[in-house]
Every structure is written in C-alpha cells, then in structure tokens.
Amino acid sequence: MAGKPKLYYFDGRGKMESVRWLLAAAGVEFEEELLETREQYEKLLQDGALMFQQVPMVEIDGMKLVQTRAILNYLAATHNLYGRDLKERALIDMYVEGTTDLMQLILMFPFLSAEDKEKQHALIVQKATNRYFPAYEKVLRDHGQDYLVGNQFSWADIHLFEAILMVEEKKCDVLSEFPQLQMFKARISNMPRIKKFLEPGSQRKPIPDDKYVETVRRVLQMYYNVKASV
Amino acid sequence: MPKVCCCLSSSQAIRSSLMAGKPKLYYFNGRGRMESVRWLLAAAGIEFVEEFLETREQYEKLLQDGALLFQQVPMVEIDGMKMVQTRAILGYIAAKHNLYGKNLKERALIDMYVEGTRDLMDLIRVHHKFSPEEQEKNLALINERATARYFPVYEKVLKDHGTEFLVGNQLTWADVQLIEAILMVEEKVSTILSKFPLLQDFKTRICNIPTIKKFLQPGSQRKPPPDESYVVTANRVFNRK
C-alpha cells in the first residue's frame, strides 16, 4: 500500500502522459511497466487486471485504476491539487476538460495518414488559438493571479502547461498573441519538480514516432485506420 | 418572482434568488450530451428549467455574451456559475447532492464506472449521424461492447458485493448513469440484458426509485431518441453541412 504507483502503458505519451505529469508535479515517484508485446497485454487481460480491457492502468493504493479521468481525479485529490471546495473543483474540471479536448486532437495525430496529418495540424493550431488559449488567457487576465484556480497550484495548471508544450511542438510561436500564457508558462517551468521533469533522463516521454504507432497497433490490434477530426 | 426581503439591497436580492433558483440547462431539445445531466438532476430530485437552442442567432448570442467558456454546449447555469463540459457539470451535481461516494476510494470506483458507461453511451449518441450502412456496423459494435466489455463488469460488481447499488451500498452517480446506459442500449437491442440477471434486477430496482420512476413517466423532461428534426436543428445551429 505504501509502494510506488505502477503505470501500465506503452513506452510513449498517449493517454498516460498526463498521469506522468501529475505524478511528477506532485513529487511522487512511480514505476512503469511498458507494454511491448501482444502477450504482455493478453496476460493482463487474463489476469483480470484491466476492468474494461484497456490501458492506461495504474496500480495504486491497492487498486487497479483504469480510465484516465478516474486515475487523474484520484491523484489530484490525494495530492491536494483539486482545489479547496466544490466550486474550485468545478472550475478545475472545466479547465481540464478543455485541455483534454485540445490534447485529444494531438493524441491521434501520429496515427493519421500524411494527408490527414496536414488537416489535423491546421485544426490543432486553429482550435488552440481560437477556442482554448483565449479562454485560459482571459481567466489569468481577469483575476491576475499566478494560477488558474483559487490562487494556488492545481491539476488545471499542470494540464494546461502540458497542453501548451504539446501545441508548441506543432507551432513553436503559438503563444505569440497570449502574453498571460507566456508568463504562466515561464512560471510553471521554473517550479522545481516541473523543471526536473523537463530535464533529460526523466520519465517524460518524447514525441510519438512510427515505432510507437507500430507498437500500439501490434499490442492492441487496433487503430489501423484513424481519420482526422472533422 | 420570489419575494424580496426589504433589508436586502435589490442586487443582493436578485443574487440570492438566482443562487436559490433552479439550474438552467442550455441545449437542444433532444438528448445528446445533456441527457445525462437531466438524469442526474432528476434522480437527485432537483427541478430544473431548460432553454432550447433552435436558431443560429440564439447560439451566437450566447457566444457574444461570453456565456460559453469553450464556445460549446451543454451549458448549465447553476449556483452562480455558467458550467460547461459535461463531466464537470455531472461531477459538480453528483458531489453537491451526495451522489459521489463517501470517500476518495468510492469516488475512484464511481469515476471508473461512469467513464465506462460514458464510452458505451458515446457509441449510441452518434449513431443517428451515420449512414444506414454504417449504422449496421455501429449496432454490431454497440451490441459487442455492451455484452462483452461493459455489462459483464457491472454484473460482476453487483455479484461480488451482493448489494443493491454499484458503490458503497447507496445510490450514486454510477447507478444513475448505468440505468441510463441500459435503457439506451435496450432501445437498440431489446434483449441486451438477457444474459445479465443481476442487471435485470438492478434495472427493476432503480426504475422503482420514486424520483427515477417519475422521470420515466410521460410528461417528464426526459427526451426521446434523436429523430430527423433533432439532427436538422443541430446542424443549423452549428452551421454544419
């Protein structure tokens, strides 16, 4: 029960990356079992370790948690990153749902055909600059505080920071019209645990490549024909 | 209009009447993503009002007023907030009305279960958008997922602890969302529960809870399955196709 959380996923970002970010920001050490073969996955299925036959799965506090949202909620709550009351939690939930929707566009990116990648790239940049970043820019501008919710660091800040970095990997100057977000990014980058997670050698995973796509397809026998979002 | 106490300033009075007011749901006159919110409010015995989007102009006004954080509906005005994002809305209602478990571990279980039912319901939510050929494939997928992935899990949960509800021996958001999912799948595959005796019992029990029984009766705010006019309205409001 006192052991480190253990993450079951591929050796890549996917849906598990937000979990790695949250654990790192909370200063929690974790282990990973990286899925490389179909057999590993089938063994997990046979052992009944995956409630809905899916990963991510995280062994923590005697539970085998599945469903990214459930995992993240639990970690945020247990590490005091989920606000002080129901209303702060409501704000955090709204904000992370927004960044989740944005990151979902990027999540499927490596699985797309070259032609669809071009479309998706444009969509990601458009949604980031017209829908999501303006919302967070306004939140920060309106209250003038360092963090999104309740004047204290929360899961919403970590998630937004992760989303910003991911979009910047697609368009490096995407924050050019968002001065508040630029300052936010600088502030969060300088937090010691975040700084550490950003350094080489951490458990942060790199941008997904063809090898990652091939591994996921081989292990899950799925995602052969993913289309760009409309 | 509620009576105004003479010792409050008028803006305080308006604020307090708003706070005490019913939640207001902004969405189409149809199920979509808002239906789970209607279910949860109904199960909790909370009266609510609805503003139905019928025209592009209504939607654009909401946008201009800055009422939609990410330019999207569902949106629910509740307790002085304009909440968006279905999960955020549901989480808030569940927590506020004691439907989110007694502790973090119960909440984790509820979260896992509602995410599972959400994935299943998402398959059905988009069904009407497909061509007849795609609908056939989707129906097979819904059937397969319900019977091989999701319902076995909930059947086992009920079997293992032998109590009436999924989590913590009391009604929670997980039960409400599961009953919604069961009824939705049954509309597509009427015999879907044939191999799940405990879920059949669960369905009977939950449907007999007074607030839920009331919601299932004609004249409630429960919406029917999507039809042609629902699709046409949504497309018009969002300038699609």
From TrEMBL, chain A:
EC category name: transferase
Superkingdom field: Eukaryota
Annotated TM spans: none
Domain named GST C-terminal: residues: 85-207
A Pfam family of this chain: GST_N
Similarity remark: Belongs to the GST superfamily. Alpha family.
Ranges of residues in domain GST N-terminal: 3-83
Annotated protein name in UniProt: glutathione transferase
Alphabetical list of PROSITE patterns matching this protein: GST_CTER, GST_NTER
GO molecular function: glutathione transferase activity
Gene: LOC102372304
From TrEMBL, chain B:
Biological process per Gene Ontology, one example term: glutathione metabolic process
Positions of the GST C-terminal domain: 103-226
Signal peptide: none
EC numbers on record: 2.5.1.18
EC class of the enzyme, as a word: transferase
Keyword Cell membrane set for record: no
Top-rank taxon, per record: Eukaryota
Keywords: Transferase
One Pfam family, short name: GST_N
Location of the GST N-terminal domain: 21-101
InterPro entries in the record: Glutathione-S-Trfase_C-like, Glutathione-S-Trfase_C_sf, Glutathione_S-Trfase, Glutathione_S-Trfase_N, GST_alpha, GST_C, GST_superfamily, Thioredoxin-like_sf
UniProt-recorded Gene Ontology molecular function terms: glutathione transferase activity
Keyword Calcium: no
Protein family membership: Belongs to the GST superfamily. Alpha family.
Name recorded for this polypeptide: glutathione transferase
Gene: LOC102375949
